[in-house]
Design brief:
With 111 residues, the chain is mostly beta strands. The protein is built from no helices and eleven strands. A four-stranded antiparallel beta sheet has the order 2-3-4-9, with no helix packed on it. A four-stranded antiparallel beta sheet has the order 5-6-7-8, with no helix packed on it. The protein has a three-stranded antiparallel beta sheet with strand order 1-11-10, with no helix packed on it.
Length: 111
């Protein structure tokens, strides 16, 4: 695993997402409760940044068509999306969020 610093934990508000670039990947870092998640920052249905959507109940919503994705698994929980988004391992250290974009948690290749 190759964790890279994505952002400061304080940059990601509760129930919000922040878009960051890590290497070649656009990633949405999201907080829900005490948990921090990282998913590819593009809806699998349309080329729209998920970091601009709402985070609620461990899901992130695509603001364009309303698809929701589970932050833990990347699976869509609402149409029109039918394909999952990539999820990445996250490690919070010393107030910073680190993401490993070389490893996927759900086996979905980042686009």
């Amino acid at each position: 695993m190759a964790f890279e610093r994505a952002c400061s934990l304080s940059e990601v508000a509760e129930d919000e997402a922040l878009g960051v670039t890590i290497g070649a990947y656009e990633v949405a870092v999201a907080r829900h409760g005490e948990e921090v998640f990282a998913v590819q920052n593009m809806c699998s249905h349309a080329a729209v940044a998920l970091s601009e959507g709402e985070v609620e109940d461990c899901t992130v919503e695509c603001w364009l068509h309303g698809s929701r994705f589970d932050l833990r698994t990347g699976k869509p929980t609402g149409l029109p999306a039918t394909e999952p988004v990539t999820t990445f391992p996250v490690d919070v250290r010393g107030g910073d969020v680190y993401v490993d974009t070389e490893t996927t948690l759900n086996g979905v290749t980042p686009s």
